[in-house]
Amino acid sequence: MQTKTKEIVIVSGKGGTGKTSISAALTSLLQGQVVIADCDVDAANLHILLQPKIQTEQPFKAGYQAKIRQSECTGCGLCAQKCRFEAIIHRQDDSFQVDPIFCEGCGVCVYFCPEKAIDFVQQECGKWMLSTTKYGPMAHAHLHIGAENSGKLVSLVRRQAKELAQQNAKEYVLVDGPPGIGCPVIAALTGADVAVIVVEPTLSGLHDLQRIFRLIKHFKLPAGIIVNKWDLNPALTTQIKDFTTKHQESFLGQIPYHQDFATALAELTPITEYKPEYQDTFADILRQILDLANSKNKSKITIGRL
């Protein structure tokens, strides 16, 4: 009987909390035992630390855009009248053209055009990749600048990561999720097994924690909380611990503020490799995360030493 793949999703209420650095550190301790998924497709950067070797690269197509065939357009202007986004430009020569910046791909102009002179073309919004790393297989993606449908791309990356896990007999998928609480985050959390929230000890950080916590509870997921740079504000770190206790969730640990973390980033290396003395801190956090993911069955996975 095939073991169900369990997904651990690392999230944060906003960008810049250290989520990706923590994801890389945890990945390094699970070297060769999990599949990695970078679902922060709007600003993907986990690959910078994990240095994947791309094996497969495919275009990501989603959403449509209208394009008028000038040779068949009679210039009736009905498309411009019907477009609520004002995306149809009436040019000086009395022809009409679709402005790709304003077009929302709703298809109204295509439907009402009496000459059927408007094409509805699917757009390439980005690309997705399957790669190998020294830590394990990796699914990741990149959304083009200004492109939409990042939620769909997140779902695609998760699906590819699950398939990789099944093909390679891996029990876990570790997901570096998007920040915030929008559509991409919802796409990353839906159907996951455990959420790990990375938060900084600031008033805005506490507010962001409360927002994303409500979202996670909507999906009825067990949650664990990590405070990054805890020693910048010990009082607020205590408030975050109190919040965790109040809601009966797991306080996974606290990570200090130190120049080592910035230097590790500059060296393009997970902190647990750059400074092995941090391995115990992250190993303790990882054990608790795996306990959450395996609340019914004790984890058989080995936490490595580098």
Report on the structure:
The protein is α/β, with parallel strands linked by helices and 306 residues long. The protein has 2 domains: 6-51 and 134-293, Rossmann fold, CATH 3.40.50; 63-124, 2-Layer Sandwich (Alpha-Beta Plaits), CATH 3.30.70.20. It has helices at residues 19-29, 46-50, 78-82, 108-112, 150-167, 183-189, 203-218, 234-246, 259-266, 271-274, 279-293; strands spanning 6-12, 34-38, 53-68, 88-90, 96-98, 118-133, 136-143, 172-179, 194-199, 223-228, 250-255. The strands form 2 sheets. Strands 3-6-7-2-8-1-9-10-11 form a 9-stranded mixed sheet, with helices on both faces. Strands 4-5 form a two-stranded antiparallel sheet. The protein is elongated and about 70 Å long. Mean pLDDT is 92; it is low at 296-301.
In short:
It is built from eleven helices and eleven strands. By secondary structure, the chain is α/β, with parallel strands linked by helices.
Helical stretch count?
11
Radius of gyration of CA atoms, rounded to a whole number: 23 Å
Q: Approximately what portion of the residues adopt beta-strand conformation?
A: 25-35%
Overall spatial form: elongated
Q: In the residues, how many domains can be counted? A: 2
What's the helix and strand layout?
Layout: E1 6-12, H1 19-29, E2 34-38, H2 46-50, E3 53-68, H3 78-82, E4 88-90, E5 96-98, H4 108-112, E6 118-133, E7 136-143, H5 150-167, E8 172-179, H6 183-189, E9 194-199, H7 203-218, E10 223-228, H8 234-246, E11 250-255, H9 259-266, H10 271-274, H11 279-293
Parallel strand pairs: 1-8, 1-9, 2-7, 2-8, 9-10, 10-11
Antiparallel strand pairs: 3-6, 4-5, 6-7
